Amino acid sequence: MISDPFRFAAEERSIQGEVAVADLLRLSDALASSEGGVLWKLEGALIEEGARREPRLRLTASGQLDLCCQRCLGGLPWVLGLDSRLHLVRAGQPIPEEELENDEVDAIEVEGELDVLALLEDEILLALPVAPRHENCDAPRPVGGASKESPFAALASLRGSPSAK
Ligand SMILES: [Zn+2]
């Protein structure tokens, strides 16, 4: 937790740490297992932007996550290499227009203190692949024919006909 992120940036401070993947609760839906940890570092800076000096944060993080393959539902190791540049904006203040056109920097609104782990979670969630899959794997066969059958297959078995394919 950073009590004053604007001051943190202005003084060009940095903090770093390691968090257990199991503590990043909002990631849990995407993971096959929550083993391991994520190393992170947050650096503050004031960037000259024309006549203004803008408070920026740079968040880097690395680690290996065990994602859940969308096809076979097995574990899929994925290397996290996060490098996010964030422009601090006070809550309620307009985001400078050029900021919206700059893909390399995201603006984040901050009111009061900054929860670093929540920010880390946000940034990891944005970095995750949308539909992670092994290059070669098969969809799991339904165990005992009970789990996740399509309604059509269920209908077919009710009628006593062989299910499709
Ligand atoms: Zn798979």
Highlighted features:
single chain; 165 residues; alpha+beta; six-stranded mixed sheet; 4 helices; elongated; binds zinc ion
Describe the structure.
One of its GO terms (biological process) is ribosome biogenesis. Keywords: Ribosome biogenesis. Belongs to the DUF177 domain family. InterPro entries: YceD, YceD_bac. Pfam families: YceD. The chain is of the alpha+beta class. The protein has one domain. Helices cover 19% and strands 38% of the residues. The chain has 4 helices and 6 strands, in the order H-E-E-E-E-E-H-E-H-H. It has helices at residues 5-10, 97-101, 116-127, 151-158, and strands spanning 14-20, 31-33, 37-49, 52-68, 75-90, 105-110. Strands 1, 2, 3, 4, 5 and 6 form a 6-stranded mixed beta sheet that branches. Helix 2 links the parallel strand 5 and strand 6. The protein is elongated, with a radius of gyration of 22 Å. The relative contact order is 0.18. The protein binds zinc ion. The site of zinc ion has 7 residues, from loops.
